[in-house]
Specification:
The complex is a heterodimer of chains A (491) and B (430).
Chain A lengths: L1 H13 L4 E17 L2 E19 L2 E7 L4 H19 L15 E5 L11 H16 L4 E19 L4 E19 L2 E7 L13 H6 L1 H12 L2 E2 L3 E7 L1 H13 L4 H4 L29 E4 L20 E6 L2 E2 L21 E2 L8 E2 L4 E3 L8 H6 L3 E6 L4 E3 L5 E4 L3 E6 L2 E7 L3 E4 H5 L2 E4 L6 E10 L4 E9 L2 E8 L1 H9 L6
Parallel strand pairs in A: 4-6, 8-20, 9-16
Antiparallel strand pairs in A: 1-2, 1-5, 2-3, 5-6, 6-7, 9-25, 10-11, 10-15, 11-12, 13-14, 16-19, 17-18, 18-21, 19-20, 21-25, 22-25, 23-24
Helix pairs in contact in A: 1-2, 3-5
Chain B lengths: L2 H13 L5 E17 L2 E19 L2 E7 L4 H17 L23 H4 L3 H17 L3 E17 L4 E16 L4 E8 L7 H14 L9 E7 L1 H13 L3 H5 L20 E3 L21 E5 L2 E2 L6 H7 L10 E3 L6 H6 L3 E15 L4 E14 L2 E5 L3 E5 L1 H4 L3 E4 L3 E3 L5 E3 L2 E11 L3
Helix pairs in contact in B: 4-5
The chains are: A alpha+beta (491), B alpha+beta (430).
């Protein structure tokens, strides 16, 4: 198959490409869904194709094809060149890539058990056993389970002479119990971190050990008190923080977005280059490190689709804004001589774009446990898991929910709440962090469904964090609207 | 892929099948898009893909396998893989065997000029859209996309269907010093788009919104332009599953047959809509038909799949493939003229659920929020976050204008509407 990628590359260069790369990718996925005691979805999918990207007269052209004949591949490369030539007629600044050393590399996700060798019966059986256990609680009226298994085998050749191959395996599982009654329905979920690992990431014992707790908390959630509209302290667990980090730091520091290239769809960012080195993004306890070499990270792919090796660097260091995620195209715009290596495509048929790296909120440097943070909180709300999330297109005003919420009084969780949302502005929020648990409590959660681009692409990345506390955050405004308007009584 | 080719491919796949029931889905798509920003084309892509999905059922054991490799070996393998997966699966107790031959509504709108739209023509149209923006010292961003979709359905009960359509979409955002403006144009062909008008509308909005003022959050009379309303109606449409409602897990529980909106509210799925048609089929290849979800403000039906429809003795509706809402001959300016003090919303961004049981959602305004005073647009306003429910909105509609197509939140043809008491809860910095 590498011969076809070589043929595409040679064709593009012969037709006038100043730069070209050819990326051949084969995907194999399994998605399994269960609802109560039935299999609601079971799909085994495969997909293979080639994407050719070129620069001609300073403009990009990209073409993708699933026709993997010699003629199909040559036509695809010729199409990419023709597209670039047409784009160049509109003018504008010419694309300039920062240099990247020629490399030959093969990267493979380290794993113990190939998830595609595990019998379907075992996977389905585990999800149905989980559902059975959830439904054993009489208050639980609905149980859902889901398992995602992915493999991507990639060959990337470029006209700089790089010859790169990767095999990335991703596994994840989640389940949800829903309690129904008195005109309401409330859920509780369990979603251990998805990772680039083998089937060993699907920890049967851990999944089953949490079913009783999840079912009980779903029922408790149904009976929980409404969230008041107040300003209070938040204690946030690592599984919750993944989305908050993703939206308010990850997307805000993608350099293509900052430069206006995502304006019409995903938007821009407040974090402009003039803020580098002088914007206080968070309190002194807040350090965000990007690390695409993180073992089992969802964005740990060995190299990106620019052919740049995985790296680690700081985005925010001791509260100060210091870095971006880049591609070879945009890195030079902030004076970088090498891209940070975060340019990825979600499919062979998609053009690579800047994506959020594995972005990690680093643990506190002094010993501190989540229990100690809780004990030190007089009034507040503790949030676990991911829920509602929304942020403006400049990545300033955000509102987040969660999966489960507890009121904190005098250092203790006293009762569950529902309909908790918190709303803040990005730098104000991270500037109010006054407690960060230490490395013993750091968890590498992540997301599998990050949307960006036009046409839309979906990508994955890890967001590790420990438990933190944030002082004086506005909560409950959303539910307050419904109470004031009386709309809730309609249901 | 012609209808004849698709039929031959389906027959080859079915000839390999040994399951009790086998269903085939065949897709072939071509998407071409030029994306521009900072007054230049920054990405330009063409992508041709195809796919085969085989669903096999042994009793109620059901599994699906897909591939995009059409070689003989791959075709045999994908059927074998679907059957192996199905045999390994526990039962899907809601599986319903596939339907027999259907009579389909003709929803095809295919335009050869759109399918073969030249890269140079696309670039020229973008250059023309950018030119007045650059001339004004501002920046344009957006995309010009064309699609060709062909798909076929077949099964072991003798069903076969084929559809082919083209679609075109142009969107533009204009970025000024402290404001932005946005507009879109959609249709089944490039000839049906009015790119210059959309580009001019985006520019006009950006200029009108300049130097926006911050206002206090609270309840406002609001005019939603079609793209803004579509963000709310799409959320309503996605949540209309009948089973979830009947099991008490949805905001629509107990609402069938009741007044859910103002009397003027009429919301349908129209498969052969001339601007944004759907596929001619719904679940498992069953023929699609027009569904009135809400008529005269009364919820006529929720969305029933084949299993739940059989359980309830109800017609199968499928989900809302598109949403078409009735309006009037009035213009958005007529609605503005009716407002003493209120807001005009161009579109929303990042709409998400807050409380699905009350259909409480949140989102941000974007690319053109305006204060309306004494029947006229008075000034730009800094963007705000809303928290409110489409269930409240459809009961608070005071005026409707002429429907327009929008694809920002899925295919919809909806009017600008005037609504009282929409809740904004916080502001932002721009």
């Amino acid at each position: 198959m590498k011969d076809l990628a070589r043929l595409a590359l040679d064709t593009a260069v012969q037709r006038g490409a100043e730069y070209a790369d050819a990326r051949l990718v084969r995907y194999r996925n399994q998605n399994i869904g269960t609802e109560d005691r039935r299999v609601s979805a079971l799909a085994d999918t495969e997909d293979v194709g080639l994407g050719v990207r070129v620069i001609v007269s300073g403009a990009w052209g990209f073409s993708g094809t699933c026709d993997l004949t010699r003629e199909g591949v040559q036509a695809c490369a010729a199409e990419a060149v023709a597209i670039a030539k047409a784009s160049a007629t509109v003018g504008g600044k010419e694309v300039q890539l920062v240099p990247e050393p020629r490399a030959t590399m093969r990267f493979a996700t380290p794993y113990q058990v190939d998830p595609f060798t595990v019998p379907i019966e075992d996977k389905v059986g585990l999800l149905l056993e989980i559902n059975d256990r959830l439904l054993a609680n009489s208050g639980v009226k609905k149980a859902h389970g889901h398992m995602t298994l992915r493999r991507a085998d990639r060959t990337l050749l470029n006209s700089d002479g790089s010859d790169l191959e990767s095999e990335v395996v991703t596994t994840g599982v989640s389940y949800r119990a829903t309690a129904v009654g008195e005109g309401d329905a409330r859920s509780r979920s369990y979603e251990p971190p998805s990772r680039t690992k083998g089937y060993e990431n699907i920890n049967r014992d851990d999944l089953l050990a949490n079913t009783e707790r999840v079912a009980e908390q779903a029922v408790e959630h149904l009976k929980a008190a409404e969230c008041p509209a107040i300003v209070t302290d938040l204690v946030l667990d690592p599984l919750h923080l993944a989305l908050t980090i993703h939206e308010s730091v990850g997307h805000a520091t993608e350099l293509d977005r900052v430069l206006g290239m995502e304006e019409s769809l995903a938007g821009r960012s407040f974090a402009v280059p003039s803020y580098l080195g002088n914007l206080k993004y968070g309190s002194g306890l807040v350090t965000f490190k990007a690390d695409n070499t993180l073992p089992h990270g969802l964005a740990t792919h060995g190299f990106d689709d620019d052919g740049v090796a995985g790296q680690s660097w700081h985005i925010v260091e001791d509260g100060l804004f210091v870095g971006y995620g880049t591609s070879r195209e945009v890195a030079g715009e902030v004076g970088l001589t090498r891209s940070t290596g975060t340019c990825r495509a979600d499919h062979w048929g998609s053009i690579p774009i800047v994506r959020i790296p594995n972005l990690l909120l680093m643990p506190g440097k002094t010993p501190l446990t989540p229990e100690e943070i809780m004990a030190d909180t007089k009034h507040g709300i503790y949030i676990e898991g991911m829920g509602s999330f929304s942020i403006d297109q400049m990545r300033c005003n955000f509102q987040f929910g969660g999966d489960a919420f507890w009121e904190i009084r005098d250092g203790r969780r006293v009762r569950m709440l529902k309909n908790v949302t918190y709303q803040s502005m990005t730098t104000e929020f991270w500037g109010s962090v006054d407690a960060v648990a230490d490395e013993r409590f750091w968890v590498p959660n992540g997301v599998l469904n990050c949307g960006k681009g036009d046409p839309m692409q979906v990508s994955q990345m890890t967001h590790g964090a420990p438990t933190i506390r944030v002082r004086n955050v506005k909560v409950g405004a959303a539910a307050e609207v419904m109470r004031q308007s009386g709309a809730g009584s309609e249901v | 892929m012609t209808k004849t080719e698709a039929q031959a491919l389906a027959e080859r796949l079915l000839s390999c099948a040994t399951a009790d029931h086998t269903e085939i889905g065949i897709g072939h798509s071509s998407e071409t898009a030029a994306r521009f920003a900072n007054n230049a084309i920054i990405q330009s892509v063409h992508n041709v893909d195809r796919g085969i999905a085989v669903t096999s059922a042994f009793g109620q054991q059901v599994g699906t396998a897909t591939t995009n490799d059409l070689s003989d070996g791959s075709l045999r393998a994908v059927v074998a893989r679907a059957e192996a997966v199905a045999k390994a699966a526990a039962p899907n107790t809601e599986y319903v065997p596939p339907p027999g031959p259907q009579e389909y509504i003709d929803t095809d709108i295919y335009d050869e000029a759109t399918a073969s739209f030249a890269h140079e023509e696309r670039a020229a149209a973008i250059a023309a859209a950018i030119q007045p923006v650059a001339g004004a010292g501002l920046r344009a961003a957006g995309s010009y996309t064309t699609y060709v979709h062909e798909s076929a359905r077949a099964n072991s009960a003798g069903l076969f269907g084929h559809t082919r359509k083209t679609q075109a979409c142009f969107v533009q955002t204009v970025v000024a010093e402290n404001s932005t403006g946005w507009a879109e144009t959609n249709g089944p062909s490039v000839a049906s788009l009015d790119v210059p008008a959309a580009a001019a509308r985006a520019l006009r909005k950006a200029l009108t919104a300049s130097d926006p003022v911050e206002i206090q959050p609270g309840a406002y009379t609001v005019i939603f332009e079609p793209a803004a309303l579509a963000g709310l109606t799409s959320i309503a449409g996605w949540t209309m599953d009948a089973k979830a409602a009947h099991e008490g897990r949805s905001c629509w529980a107990g609402k069938e047959g009741t007044q859910v909106g103002v009397e003027a509210l009429d919301l349908r799925t129209v498969p052969d809509n001339p601007v944004l048609p759907t596929a001619p089929w719904i679940q498992q290849g069953l023929a699609a038909r027009e569904i009135a979800w809400v008529k005269d403000g009364v919820l006529q039906t929720l969305a029933y799949d084949r299993f739940w429809a059989a359980e309830c003795g109800h017609e199968v509706t499928g989900g809302p493939g598109n949403l078409v809402m009735k309006g009037t001959d009035a213009s958005v300016d007529d609605l503005i003229a009716d407002v003493d003090r209120g807001l005009l919303v161009t579109r929303f961004w990042y709409i998400r659920f807050v409380d699905p049981m009350r259909l409480l959602i949140t989102g941000m305004t974007r690319d053109g929020l305006f204060m309306v005073e004494n029947g006229e647009i008075a000034r730009g306003v800094k963007n705000m976050r809303f928290n409110d429910s489409p269930l409240r909105v459809i009961k608070s509609i005071r005026g409707l204008a002429k429907p327009e197509p929008t694809t920002l939140h899925g295919p919809q043809v909806v009017p600008p509407v005037l609504v009282d008491g929409f809740h904004f809860t916080s502001t932002t910095s721009f």
